[in-house]
Hints:
- It is built from three helices and no strands.
- It has helices at residues 2-11, 16-96, 100-132.
- The chain starts with a helix and ends with a helix.
Amino acid sequence: xxxxxxxxxxxxxxxxxxxxxxxxxxxxxxxxxxxxxxxxxxxxxxxxxxxxxxxxxxxxxxxxxxxxxxxxxxxxxxxxxxxxxxxxxxxxxxxxxxxxxxxxxxxxxxxxxxxxxxxxxxxxxxxxxxxxx
Length: 133
């Protein structure tokens, strides 16, 4: 390759001094590129592998984020259904539950009525017993 480039330069009609500078320049480029080529390939491979690793890591991070968001949406739906159940429970609670004070008051009223009925029965029995004697 170097000999062919020197022959091409020799055919061009330019001063001899410029021809040597051009051939030296071309040989430096050719030799330098052959020496730099493996290094450049190694550097390219390094950056390509770095890019591949970065994209893999970014893809995995995105996948994990999507999984987290899906789990978060599911837990949010569960929370909404739990909140609905709680509100239903709060609405039905007064219907199904009697407070202790209300129960005691109701029992007191019933017992007072029973006591009044017992007093009337006792009075009737007492009057009947007096009539018979």
